[in-house]
Every structure is written in structure tokens, then in C-alpha cells.
Amino acid sequence: MGTMGTVTHRKVVPPMKTTRIVLASRPTGRPEPANFRTETVELDPPKPGQALLQTLYLSLDPYMRGRMSDAPSYAPPVEIDETMCGATVSRVLESTDPALRPGDIVLGYGGWQTHSVEYVSYLRALDPAAAPITTALGVLGMPGFTAYSGLLTIGRPQPGETVVVAAATGPVGATVGQIAKIQGARAVGIAGGPEKVALLRDRFGFDAALDHRAPDFADQLAAATPDGIDVYFENVGGPVFDAVLPRLNKFARIPVCGLVANYNDTELPPGPDRLSLLMSNVLRKSLTLRGFIQTEFLDQAGDFYPAATQWLADGRLKYLEDVVDGLDNAVPAFQGLLTGKNLGKLVIKVAE
Amino acid sequence: MGTMGTVTHRKVVPPMKTTRIVLASRPTGRPEPANFRTETVELDPPKPGQALLQTLYLSLDPYMRGRMSDAPSYAPPVEIDETMCGATVSRVLESTDPALRPGDIVLGYGGWQTHSVEYVSYLRALDPAAAPITTALGVLGMPGFTAYSGLLTIGRPQPGETVVVAAATGPVGATVGQIAKIQGARAVGIAGGPEKVALLRDRFGFDAALDHRAPDFADQLAAATPDGIDVYFENVGGPVFDAVLPRLNKFARIPVCGLVANYNDTELPPGPDRLSLLMSNVLRKSLTLRGFIQTEFLDQAGDFYPAATQWLADGRLKYLEDVVDGLDNAVPAFQGLLTGKNLGKLVIKVAE
């Protein structure tokens, strides 16, 4: 124990402070500013195995709405008075572990704050020369891997099949559509508003692009899927799913990774009760509905990173980021995320 | 062509008649006697490749309710004035194909009638010495294979896991429970009424047996599944599924092969709309919901028959038949099937 010593890269620094956004109360419906509190506190110095980090970018993602609630879910909730959780790209200021040096850029899970102390073993060093560091929060990070693993493992698109995805300018949806194309499938993207719809076709190369706000959206979807739908990658729920359901082909696969349209619901919608309608579709069409969280497929991450990095380099995989300046803007930016106001992967730029 | 000749086992017989039950009109809700018509007509003599059969036993199964409707489904509907469809065990009266001789017993698809003319290539000869011939309609037939293929391919029960099935004295449910036990899982059976519940425990060896009519059924189900539910084999739908949903474990599998509780519904039930509730369970628990028809898995039939026949011989697989005498009783017997009045596999004995 300790006989080998450890090299500690440490500067003499005054007590380090962090400015953080904590959960002050659990939202009912839409999260409001009153549900959060911004405070500045002193950070404990890093213990052995830890590093002190300065947050450069904070990822904002729909799943965070679930963590604000204490309803049973796949992950424990953020506690009241606890810092809101979130993936971060940070600069190392101080490290007790020789694996990291001050100045290194890392992917971590620092949350909604300017500085954090994290265990080095949970950090992943990023190579700024390989790809822009923000991509570790989007197309090369959790959202991209969600798209990759859910589409390939559950959706299994075959050449010539039709894949439909909503929120298709978002980091999951855009990646689903482009990987579907790489697999030889036909990709139909759905988004809200003409600006996003134009991006689907022009930037991301979807074969068809639809606006779910159009009054005749269901008819447009039928026209855009003349051979029906073989894979519906479900990351929004709500009215889009209602229009998709009658278009699903026999043996269609529906990976379910998000239901953002419902996240602010405080009670079930009024009837009729369509649970039996969904089940009868599952039966009549031999559908597969499969919920998943990307962590289930982490054994595929070693395939994903090189493949996605190569596709990025080849120009076959494009991405779009919506970078909002300043941690102060995290709450309104997150509110906008839940109603689709962002254009691409939403990232808060916390520091240069 | 024809130079080899074919041996025709043919007796000189007067024109053969069949008494048959045809669909006279499509039921709205519960099928009523007025939806059917019994008539006696002359049969055309068998053409080359066909055989003339006398029906001994007619299988009645819940899927037939779907064939009475012209709503889109996995199989075309029975046409108006057409003989109601159904699997049959029959005796060969006359065959144009040397593979079958008069007196042979075959599994066919003759429908609700006393005699039929069928293509020999669609018939399967039965060995009355190997198992009672009625088992070809139940435990060793389509219902048994539905249980086997859906449970093992989609449900994939692991030793120690908990498998729940409803309509558990029926030919699918009883077989699901017993194969679950053979796989080392814990089997919880659900049925309607004390007589059936007693059978689940005493005859079929379920680890727990519950009456879905009990006012505290949901509480009983919770008590009977202390470790939650890993596989729910869905063949009924309705209130049983409502009680199962909150008990499902993470990564639970739900093969969906029938929804008999809903088959007579003429409109969706009143709200609230629980479609989003089901989807959020799929997401939060990483559930797999998978509809299927056993025909999808016919490549496993070669494994099923010897395995199930051996389990029958070993006494590890038991079955129960509810034999109703006379084709005249097919309509009321079918009405009873949709409300669970039968006790075991429902079979009409059409002739000795």
C-alpha cells in the first residue's frame, strides 16, 4: 500500500468554488425556474483517485425530466438540493491520478455546474484532434450510441425496408436516419416546423421529411410510406405514434428509447382507452415493441466509436449542435428542449 | 405425365353429402345463432390429389372469432355463406392418393361440417397408437405448439424466473405453465372460478393458482409473484393484463398470442387512454412485447412433436379436453369458449 507512491499533478490553489444549479423542488408538469436554485459553494479538494474539473460543455437531454421526478424509473431521481445531473465535457485542473494531467479534456458526468470533482476511473479522455469535443455529448456520445445500438440490435433494418423516426433533427433521430441509410434502408424523418423539415432532406439526406404539425400529417405519412413501415424508432410518443400505428407492417420492430411528448404529463389523457387497440395491433401484425436504455448494449460501444468516427470522417454521418451560451440559460434551454425549440443536439457552453 | 398411373382407392358410392355450418352474417359483438346457418349439400367427388373425409372431431378455438370479422387481420375472413373454418380429425373414406387409404385417421382443416374433400398434401396422418387422436387438435397440435414456440422463442424463461399465464386450464395456457416448469421456472396460473383454479394446482402443477374473478385479484397476484414477473404469456388481454403490468420486472418478455377478452368488443373502452401508460412501462422497464402466430415458427415443429410426445408419455405434460357431442352444439359451445365456459380444450365430437 503506497510503497509505489503516486504522482500527483497539483498546483497550490485557493479553495475552489463551483456555481451549480440544484433541484429545489419536483416539477409538476413543465419544469419551471422555481423548481431550481443556483448557488455557489466550495468544493472539497480531490481525494486520491479523483480529479478537479472545469466544465466546458454541459449536455441537456430529455431523460433529465425523468430524473426530476421521483416516480419509479430506470434510474434513481436527483434528490432535492442535489446538483442536476448531466454529462459534461471538462478540462482537468488538477488530478491525483497520473492518467490525467491538467489541461486534458475529458468526458464526465459533472452535472449542471461550473466545476466538479470526479473519480478519474469514470472519466474518458477525449482527443480534440480526432473530433470536436462537443461530439462526445452527441453524435459520438450517448445519443449517437442510443441510435446505433437500438436501431441495429432491435430495429434490424434490412436493405429496402422503411425506417421512420421522429425528432429527426435531434441527435438520436438524425443518427437513426443516417445509419438506416448506411444499412440500405429507406429513411423517413419527422420533425416540427418547416426549418427542421428542410434540414432533414438537405443536411441529413432523409428520403422523405414530414412536419408533424401539418393538419394532414397522417395522410402525408401514408403517402411517404407506400410500402408501410418496417421499423419505427420511438423517441417521442404522442400523436406521431398514433399516425405510425396503422402504417406498421407485419413483423415491424419498434425500439422505444424515449417518449418526450409525454414527459410533462401529470395525468393520463382522456379516453377512449387505446391500450387494447395497441395490443391488438401487436397481435395482428406480429409486432415487436422493445424498450431499451443504451447502457444495456455497452458491450457494443467498442464497435460503435470507430464506426461512427469513420462515418463522420467520410461525411456519411452528419450532426447538428445547438450551443447555448452560459449555465444561466440551462433552465430555459431545457424547457425548450421538451417542446422541440432546439435545433440539433442541445449543449450549454459553460466556459471557454 | 400419367405414365406411372396412380392407385386410386375408391369405392362406388352414392353422391356424398355434407351437413355444414356456414357463416350467414358477420357478428357484431357476441356471435349469435342467427349469424350461422346449417345446411346439407352435395360434395363434389375428390379430384386427383384429394381425399373424401368424414369428420370425427372439430376443434373450436378463439381465433375463429377473428375469422368471422372482416377487419384486417393476419388471415382472410371466412366469407359469407362459406363453411366456418376449423381444424378437424377425420377418417378417410376415399383417396385418390396412394399415401392414404380408407380408414386412415388424419388431421386436416375441414371446418364445421360432417364431411369434407381436402388435398392429401395438406393432411397429416395420425397414429392412434401413439396418442389419442384428439390431442392433434390440442396439446400435440396448434395450441400446444403455440405454447411451445411462443414461450421458448419469445418468453425464454430462465430457471428460477416467474412465468405467468392466464386462461391456464386452456390448451395453450396449461401447456405454457407445464413447459415453464420443465424449463425450471416458477409457473403462476390464472383462471376463472374455483373449479379451474383447483385444476391448475392439482392437475397441472402450477406453483400458484389464482382466480381472476376474485375482488382482490391484483393483490393476490402481487402476493403470488414476490419476485415480480419475468414472462407474461398473453392470451387473454383485459383486466388480467392490467394487474400484470405493474408486476413486470425489468427486461420482462410478453409473447402475445391472443386477446380473447377483447374479441367481442365493438368499440374501444372508455378512458382514460392508457396507451401512453403501456408505452412508458415498455420504456422504463425495457420490456419486450411481441405478437406472434405459431405459423411463424413452423421450422420448430420438428423439435416440438417428439419433445411433447415424450413429455406426455413421461407424465410431465398433462392435458384436459372438453368434448361436446354433436355438430349441432358447435355454436353454443363456441359462445361459451369466448367467455371461458369450457374446461380444457374444446372439441366437438362430430361422429364416432
Describe this structure in words.
Two copies of one chain form a homodimer. Chain A has 352 residues and is α/β, with parallel strands linked by helices. Chain A has two domains: 17-138 and 320-349, Quinone Oxidoreductase, Chain A, domain 1 (Alpha-Beta Complex), CATH 3.90.180.10; 142-297 and 306-310, NAD(P)-binding Rossmann-like Domain (Rossmann fold, 3-Layer(aba) Sandwich). In chain A, 25% of the residues lie in helices and 24% in strands. Chain A contains nine helices and 15 strands. In chain A, strands 3, 4, 5, 6, 7, 14 and 15 form a seven-stranded mixed β-sheet that branches. In chain A, strands 10-9-8-11-12-13 form a six-stranded parallel β-sheet, sandwiched between helices. In chain A, strand 12 (248-256), helix 7 and strand 13 (288-291) form a beta-alpha-beta unit. In chain A, helix 2 (142-155) crosses helix 3 (171-182). The longest helix of chain A is centred in the middle third of the chain and has 14 residues, at 142-155. Chain A binds chain B through residues 72-74, 234, 237-238, 241, 250, 256-259, 262, 265, 267-293, 296, and chain B through 72-74, 234, 237-238, 241, 250, 256-259, 262, 265, 267-293, 296.
